[in-house]
Amino acid sequence: MSQNLSRRGFLGCACCAAVSVGIAGRLPAFAAEGARTNLTPDQALETLKEGNRSFKTDSPVRAVQGRERRLEIARGQTPFATLVSCSDSRVPPELLFGRGLGELFIVRNAGNTVDTAALGTIEYGVAQLGVPLVVVMGHERCGAVEAAVKVVTENASYPGSIGRMVEPIVPAVIAAQREGGDLLQAAVRANVRRTVSRLRTASEPMLLEPLRAGKLRIVGASYDIDDGSVDFFDEG
Ligand SMILES: [Zn+2]
Q: Which residues neighbour ligand 1 (ion) by CB within 5 Å?
């Protein structure tokens, strides 16, 4: 292995490198010192809503990208929203919200759950990058939520790590059963609400303090695959 490759293997991505360096003390900033979005939580949410309106109506979206933007943010990022969303290929956050480079700090996994890595990522975005908005977004006909529904209704089991991955969604399915109606869709929303609630009551002051101070909002959302709209709910 060349020195270059082994160095890359050790450091991983810039994100991981930054965190590993900070283990012993203060976390180093991704962004240039003091550089943070100047959007308020409400403005950040409205910006996402506007972008989604353009996306769903096929209006031209001028997402910030290209060489100039790349250079502008090369030395520091100032994202204005953190998205917790599903890995589903039909649900790419930047496209759904008409956003470009350096605007969204994203956690994605099948079923948009929050494990330790996801929670740390969210906390980092808020505490270190000054992100004023966290959106937990489920979506219609989510395969991971459907897998959890089958665990509850058919006692299904899955190979490898898939079963453990959908476990955190099972309580949402059970809660959704009490609501009646379409179980999968109700479970998608219940899964989002549970995560939003957990983030709002997380014991770490990194989220609680900015929430209390009005510098952070944590909201739920669901994406409609058919018409392209994001329905925000549980806006807090
Ligand atoms: Zn999904």
A: 86, 88, 142
Sequential DSSP letters for 39-104: --HHHHHHHHHHHHHHHHTT-----S-SHHHHHHTTT----SEEEEE---TT--HHHHTT--TTSE
> Which pLDDT belongs to residue 17?
42
**Residue labelled with tokens 């949402």:** 172
pLDDT of residue 202: 79
Calculate how far, in angstroms, residue 142's C-alpha sits from the geometric centre of ligand 1. Answer: 4
Distance 227 CA to ligand 1 centre (A): 16
Q: Tell me if 191 sits within 8 A of 152, measured CB to CB.
A: no
What are the CA-CA distances from residue 127 to residues 8, 69, 79, 185, 201 (Å)?
Answer: 27, 24, 12, 33, 16
Model pTM score: 0.86
Q: Could you give the C-alpha distances from 231 to 1, 56, 107, 135, 214, in angstroms and in order? A: 49, 12, 19, 11, 22
Altogether, the residues listed in the chain come to a count of: 236
Beta strands of 86-177 (E only): which ranges?
Answer: 104-108, 133-139
